[in-house]
Amino acid sequence: MSSRRLLKAASAIREVVSMAIITELRDPRVAGVTVTAVEMSPDMRQAKVHVSIMGHEKKQADCLEGLKRSAGFLQAKINDRIDTRYTPKLEFVIDKGVKHSLEVARILKDVLPKDDEPEEEDDDEPAPLDQPTEPQE
User: Fold this and answer.
1) Could you tell me the CA-to-CA distances from 5 to 19, 43, 57 in Å, in that order?
2) What is the model's pLDDT at position 97?
3) For labelling, which of 4, 48, 90, 130 has a CA lying 20 to 30 Å from the CA of 18?
4) CA 17/CA 21 separation, integer angstroms
């Protein structure tokens, strides 16, 4: 069970790391990265940073290696921005959630029948109130 303190720390670390990756990281391997979540250990000494990386497998592996190499720089940024007793050691993992959801959507699109014919409207229904009706004489 995560405490409120851990959730606040994880949120702050997510914000700092994502902004540092976008604005300050100059490694050419690190591109197309989105920080999706951060998990903190109960003692707040380790943080697992989940990232979504766009591109093929080779590009993802290169980008993940670039993130691991720049972990010290990102930890220094966390230390500058967040006042805690310990600066957490960062571990980067690829978040496959986005790719899995796209794959599930593709499979469902293939499996489900296509709705080419529009549904017929019933003429028995009364007209909505916001549309004027024809005057009766």
Assistant:
1) 21, 11, 36
2) 83
3) 4
4) 6
pLDDT of res. 6: 92
3-state SS string for 3-54: CHHHHHHHHHHHHHHHHHHHHCCCCCCCCCEEEEEEEECCCCCEEEEEEEEC
CA distance 98 to 54: 10
Type and span of the H or E element at 89: strand 89-94
Give every CB contact of residue 131 below 8 A, 6+ residues apart in sequence: none
Q: Alpha-carbon distance 111 to 106, whole Å?
A: 9
What stretches in the chain show pLDDT beneath 50? 1
CA angle, residues 101, 106, 111, in degrees to nearest 5: 125
